[in-house]
Write a structure and sequence with these properties.
27% strand; single chain; alpha/beta; binds magnesium ion; binds adenosine-5'-diphosphate; 10 helices; 4-stranded antiparallel sheet; Rossmann fold
Length: 249
C-alpha cells in the first residue's frame, strides 16, 4: 500500500519554479531515501508532504498530495496533516524544557493528561528511540544537556509521541558521529514496521544501508525511483549513474 502519493505536483517560491510536475509514491511500512544534489528541492518536497512549506512567504503549489488516499489539500484542518505526517530536522531540535516535557509537548497539546498516562507515554516513546535506559533517572533535567545524538533521538521521540503515520527525516544524521548515526539507522529499520519513513540523506551509504527504495531528484525533477539495489547498481538513467558514482553532487 502507498502511504503517500504525489500527483503532478509543482511548487514555486515567488516566480521561481522549484519542483516540476512530480509524480511519485512512497510505500507504507518501508524506508524510502530521497537523494540528489544540494538545492535540487529535497527539503521543499518533504515540507510539502506535511504542509509546512507553505509557511514560507511566496510559496505556491499545484497538483495534489495524498496521504493514505486522502488529499492533504482537501482537509479542513492543516494541523491534522501535520499530526499525521511528522518531521525530524537536520539540526536536532529540542525545546528549552526538560527531557520529559519535550516528549509530552505534543501529547499535552492534543489533550493527554493524568500522571500515570503521561508517565507511560514518556516511557513508551523514549523506549521506542532507545533513549529510556540512558535518561530514565534524569527525566526532569533540561534536554539541552544531552549529547547531539541523544538530542536527535529525543527529537524523534517528540515527533513519534503524536503517533504520526508518516515520518519525514531531513538529513537527520548529518551532524552526528558514526555511532549515533548507526543507532538511528537501527531505530528507523525497527520503526518501518509500523510507519512509512521518507529520509533525505546526502550520505549514499546510508541510503544503501537502510532504504528499500531510493528516489533521485535533480533540479526539481524526478529522475527515477527504484529499488535501492538497482538505483545504485543498474540505474535506468545516466544522470543517476553519474550521481551515485560521485561524478557530481
Ligand atoms: N524560503 C525560500 N524562499 C525562496 N527560495 C527558497 C526557499 N527555500 C528554498 N528555496 C530555494 O529552493 C531550491 C530548493 O531548495 P531545497 O528544497 O532546500 O533543496 P535541497 O533540500 O535539495 O538542498 C533552492 O534553489 C533554494 O534556494
Ligand atoms: Mg535540504
Amino acid at each position: 500500500m502507498n502511504a503517500v502519493e504525489i500527483k503532478e505536483f509543482s511548487t514555486w517560491y515567488g516566480k521561481g519554479e522549484i519542483l516540476h510536475n512530480i509524480d511519485l509514491s512512497f510505500r507504507n511500512n518501508s524506508i524510502t531515501a530521497v537523494i540528489g544534489p544540494s538545492g535540487c528541492g529535497k527539503t521543499t518536497l518533504l515540507r510539502s508532504i506535511n504542509r509546512t512549506a507553505e509557511l514560507e512567504s511566496g510559496f505556491k503549489s499545484q497538483g495534489d498530495i495524498q496521504v493514505f488516499d486522502n488529499s492533504i489539500y482537501q482537509v479542513k484542518d492543516v494541523s491534522a496533516v501535520r499530526r499525521q505526517v511528522g518531521m525530524v530536522y537536520q539540526t536536532p531540535a529540542v525545546l528549552p524544557l526538560s527531557i520529559r516535557e519535550n516528549v509530552l509537548f505534543g501529547p499535552r497539546y492534543y489533550g493527554e493528561k493524568g500522571r500515570s498516562r503521561l508517565d507511560s507515554i514518556v516511557e513508551k516513546q523514549l523506549t521506542r528511540v532507545a533513549l529510556w535506559e540512558e535518561v530514565k533517572d534524569r527525566l526532569n533535567r533540561p534536554a539541552d544537556k544531552l549529547s547531539g545524538g541523544q538530542k536527535q533521538r529525543l527529537a524523534m521521540a517528540r515527533v513519534l509521541a503524536i503517533e504520526p503515520q508518516v515520518l519525514l527525516l531531513d538529513e537527520p544524521c548529518s551532524s552526528l558521529d558514526p555511532a549515533s548515526t548507526g543507532l538511528i539507522e537501527e531505530l528507523l529499520q525497527k520503526l518501518a514496521a509500523e510507519l512509512s519513513i521518507i529520509i533525505v540523506t546526502h550520505n549514499l551509504y546510508q541510503a544503501r544501508r537502510i532504504a528499500g527504495e531510493t528516489v533521485f531528484l535533480l533540479d526539481g525533477s524526478l529522475v527515477e525511483k527504484g529499488l535501492t539495489s538497482e538505483i545504485f547498481s543498474s540505474p535506468a538513467d545516466e544522470r543517476t549513474r553519474g550521481f551515485v558514482s560521485g561524478l557530481y553532487g
